Amino acid sequence: MIDFKGIKSWLLASLAVNLFLLGYVVSGLLQPKDMPPPPPSPVSMLDRMSENLSPAGQAVLRDLVATNGAKLEELHGAMMAARMRVRDVFAKEPFDSAAFQAAQSEAFAAAQAFFQALGEVIGETGVRLSAEDRQRLRPFNPPSPR
């Protein structure tokens, strides 16, 4: 006589594996391929910059991140959201040139606000760091998001 209990277990396990693989393949197909990964957050970038500093320099950078990190993250989020609005307006049918120009101006203003705040933090960092730590930061180049 055939033992159907063992066959049922193998069929159930096979079905589970096949459904998992199907979900994995479908999720890979649904992800957009044309978008690069987002750039690192400003706080993570500043944390990475501090790795090469002396302990005193790391403390300075940590203090500045603690003081300004939330503001930088907020401005970075606003800049990224404004960039996405530009993409959305550009793709909308029918194309509205005035709406695109307005979204583009908003994105430029958001980027300017973020980079100005980031420049202020980096400028304050430079004032408080030793000459040796400033030299250690000089060659820092963030990785390309690609």
Quick recap:
This protein is mostly helical and about 150 residues long. The chain has five helices and no strands.
What oligomeric arrangement do these chains adopt?
single chain
Number of strands: 0
Radius of gyration: 25 Å
Structural class: mainly alpha
Q: Mean of residue pLDDT?
A: 83
Q: What is the H/E order?
A: HHHHH
Distance between the termini: 60 Å
Helix proportion range: over 70%
Low-confidence stretches: none
User: Biggest sheet, open or closed, and with what strands and sense?
Assistant: none
Number of helices in the DSSP assignment: 5
Coarse morphology: flat
Beta fraction: under 5%
Can you characterise this structure?
The chain is an all-alpha fold. It has five helices and no strands. It has helices at 4-30, 42-49, 55-91, 97-128, 131-137. It starts with a helix and ends in a 9-residue tail after the last helix. The model has no long low-confidence stretch (mean pLDDT 83).
List the helices and strands and how they pair.
Layout: H1 4-30, H2 42-49, H3 55-91, H4 97-128, H5 131-137
Helix pairs in contact: 2-3, 3-4
Descriptive tags:
single chain, 146 residues, mainly alpha, 5 helices, 76% helix, flat
